[in-house]
Design a protein that fits this description.
The complex is a heterodimer. Chain A is an alpha/beta fold. Chain A is 31% helix and 17% strand. Chain A has a 5-stranded parallel beta sheet. A 5-stranded parallel beta sheet of chain A has the order 19-18-17-20-21, with helices on one face. Chain A has a 4-stranded parallel beta sheet with strand order 13-12-11-14. The longest helix of chain A is centred in the first third of the chain and has 17 residues. By secondary structure, chain B is an alpha/beta fold. Chain B has a single domain, classed as Aconitase, domain 4, CATH 3.20.19.10. Helix content of chain B is 31%, strand content 16%. Chain B has 9 helices and 7 strands. A 7-stranded mixed beta sheet of chain B has the order 4-3-2-1-5-6-7. Chain B is globular, with a radius of gyration of 19 Å. Classes of the chains: A alpha/beta, B alpha/beta. At the A-B interface, helix 2, helix 3, helix 5, strand 10 and helix 12 of A face helix 4, helix 6, helix 7, helix 8 and helix 9 of B.
């Protein structure tokens, strides 16, 4: 029994424990809680206006040592050859994007916020490098001007996306005003089958809950189906929490978490590993803790998933057919499905197996880590990307890129005819030259199939790295379980 | 914004789609700006303009009747997806003062409140009533929104109440914002920090 938790106290969830520990001032009828932020991640696209606001209000950065900046969203990922001497430099990107990168560099220089700029070997997608640098830890509050901040919840941290006005607030005070969200337990029992991944689990939950089903809630993922996942798989699941509308998604820290942290976390002299561990071990939800909502899922029944529509909730097992409009019935859901299918160029009631694809994208903060690249490479080994398919493989960070290269994954991708690129958000957000042309159909390991998300007029089918790789080699939507190499 | 400005009336424009994500409100390719201003012309860009850049006459915002409307009535789960505050800036710059829906995504709602864009959440039934009150030629009745009273009224017979979190409401009515409150709380924040030693150091981690 923890010495810090009185016996009389009601059982609390993981979320409540983190929330309580970060209250600077309690929520009242008149004001929200003042919530302290342990770690603030900053990138180029959502920060410039916040720094401007601080200058206009004559405010300074409260805690530069709790803040870290990187460049990922509008950075280029392609290398250009320099007069035949191999690949040496990043191509010129558009002037606005360059100005945005320069602005971040200037803002960090002026304020003392550490920056991992283009060219830094530790740079990468903000949600990939947080854990890599050992900055993401259990029990923390973590925010970023990016909705996929929920990724860090995999470590038992309360991590959520914020707008630029809030970025300014955190820069100036290291705090946010927050009304306490509700809690939702998503219990996943059983093991995922061969060829079925954490991404499929996340998409199955998106299908179940829809894009707004968890709005107002912080999700805690529990159960044997979650405990059995690696940290990278847990990050994939927590990453997609926002696609169900959730404020955040988290998983209680356990031995898997601690093993990941052990090699990465650097602690100051004021604390010790065993002291931190003791605190982290108290984080998991107490027996009998109450959630506002409960969703259960049997992992053994999850199949490889794909999306057919224009939001992540429009997902289905790859072997099923697109919903039939007659069975959907009348009303807004039918209209929405019809509109989505028209945009996607897909038929109601049809199977998507065998549908020709033009682009395959492996990357994004959802699926760009080493295990994702290994899974894709296992499918591509000794195979070729179909001649009509363009395949991009974009590692989540420069560290992931180096690790992949050290085990020869880049060669497997290159030999298969895929493009092996520098790290960044790339074709997930299409701000940087990596984009679909209008009408192109892509299978993508990213997180959003919204209209135009990967380029104006582009059409996105979300899937796991193995399903995406299977589509790349066959050139059509393919059940990865039919391909040797995808069954790891 | 002052008290009187939060009691206003306007005709409204309807986009009946549900789950309108912030990528539709402002596509990512316009996010390379470093300003909060000037995004209005790009609001709903890919729905509003045809591929050749001409206005799509079918899109509600492009109809003559939409000119000057300050209120957008939209389907459930408005503003889902990306946290980009640019979506709110674009809607404000396009002339909107309030969005009415039966559900708002969390981050969008927070961004809206921080910028003086009023997110009015109504029941599904009321949303359907507002949408069906628009005539075949897209002319809407006038809606009256009163933040202080927390009411939305259309004609004499249709009225509903809505809730804005008390602090956000206070800020909007009194021309204040969250930043001012947080900055005034810095002594408390300092006290919190002194009893919660910092174990993370980004400067050290990136040295």
């Amino acid at each position: 029994m923890s010495p810090r938790v009185p016996h009389s106290q009601a059982p609390r969830t993981l979320f409540e424990k983190i929330w309580d520990a970060h209250i600077v001032q309690k929520q009242s009828d008149a004001t929200p809680a003042i919530l302290y932020v342990d770690l603030h991640l900053v990138h180029e696209v959502t920060s410039a206006q916040a720094f401007t606001e601080l200058r206009e209000r004559e405010l300074t950065i409260w805690a530069p040592h709790r803040t870290i900046a990187t460049m990922d969203h509008s950075t280029p990922t392609g290398l250009i050859s320099s007069s035949g001497r191999g690949f040496t430099s990043l191509p010129v990107i558009e002037a606005d994007a360059q100005f945005q990168l320069d602005t971040l560099e200037r803002n960090c220089k002026d304020t003392g916020i550490p920056l991992l700029p283009l060219g830094d070997e530790r740079r990468g997608i903000v949600h990939v490098i947080g854990p890599e640098l050992g900055l993401t830890r259990p029990g923390m509050t973590i925010v970023c001007g990016d909705s996929h901040t929920s990724t860090h919840g995999a470590f038992g941290a309360l991590a959520f996306g914020i707008g630029t006005s809030q970025v300014a607030q955190v820069l100036a005070t290291q705090c946010l005003l927050q009304n306490k969200p509700k809690s939702m337990q998503i219990r996943v029992d059983g093991r995922l089958g061969p060829g079925v991944t954490a991404k499929d689990l996340a998409l199955a939950l998106c299908q179940r809950l829809g894009t707004g089903g968890a709005t107002g809630h912080v999700i805690e993922y529990t159960g044997s189906g979650i405990r059995g996942l690696s940290m990278e798989e847990r990050m994939t699941v927590c990453n997609m929490s926002i696609e169900m509308g959730a404020r955040a998604g988290l998983i209680a820290p356990d031995e898997t978490t601690f093993a990941f942290l052990r090699s990465r976390v650097r602690l100051p002299a004021t604390t010790t590993w065993s002291k931190e561990m003791a605190t982290w071990r108290e984080l998991p939800s107490d027996e009998g803790a109450v959630y506002d909502a409960l969703v259960t899922l049997d992992a053994t029944e999850v199949a490889p998933m794909i999306t057919y529509g224009t939001n992540p909730g429009m997902a289905m097992p790859i072997t099923q057919t697109v919903p039939n409009l007659e069975t959907i019935g009348e009303g807004s859901r039918r209209d929405e499905t019809q509109r989505a299918l028209r945009y996607m160029g897909l038929e109601a009631g049809a199977t998507l197996l065998g549908t020709r694809v033009e682009v395959v994208f492996i990357g994004s903060c959802t699926n760009s880590r080493l295990s994702d690249l290994r899974a894709a490479a296992a499918v591509l080994r000794d195979r070729r990307v179909a001649p009509w398919v363009r395949m991009l493989v974009v590692p989540g960070s420069q560290a992931v890129k180096r690790a992949a290269e050290s085990e020869g994954l880049d060669q497997i991708f290159a030999n298969a005819g895929a493009e092996w690129r520098e790290s960044g958000c790339s074709m997930c957000i299409a701000m940087n030259g990596d984009r679909l042309e209008a009408g192109q159909l892509a299978v993508s390991t990213s997180n959003r199939n919204f209209e135009g998300r990967q380029g104006a007029g582009g059409r996105t089918i979300l899937a796991s790295p193995v399903t995406a790789a299977a589509a790349a080699v066959t050139g059509v939507i393919t059940d990865p379980r039919e391909l040797h190499g995808a069954m790891a | 914004m002052s008290r009187s400005e939060w009691k206003f009336e306007s005709r409204y424009v309807v986009i009946s789609r549900e789950n309108i994500d912030t990528d539709q409100i402002i596509p990512a390719r316009f996010l390379t700006t470093t300003s909060r201003n000037g995004l209005g012309p790009h609001a709903f860009h890919d729905w509003r303009y045809a591929k050749d850049g001409s206005l799509n006459p079918e899109f509600p915002l492009n109809r003559r009747e939409a000119a000057g409307t300050r209120v957008l009535v939209a389907g459930s789960n408005f503003g889902c997806g990306s946290s980009r505050e640019h979506a709110v800036w674009a809607l404000l710059d396009a002339g909107f003062k309030s969005i009415v829906s039966s559900q708002f995504a969390d981050i969008f709602r927070s961004n809206a409140l921080n910028n003086g864009l009023l997110p009015v959440q109504v029941s599904r039934e009321m949303l359907a009533t507002l949408m069906s009150a628009v005539s075949a030629d897209s002319v809407s009745p006038t809606v009256r929104i009163d933040l202080e009273a927390g009411t939305l009224r259309v004609a004499e017979d249709i009225e509903t109440s809505f809730v804005i979190p008390p602090f956000a409401r206070y800020c909007m009515l009194n021309g204040m914002d969250e930043m001012q409150f947080l900055v005034s709380s810095l002594p408390k924040i300092t006290r919190y920090e002194s009893s919660h030693p910092c174990t993370v150091d980004t400067v050290d981690a990136t040295r």
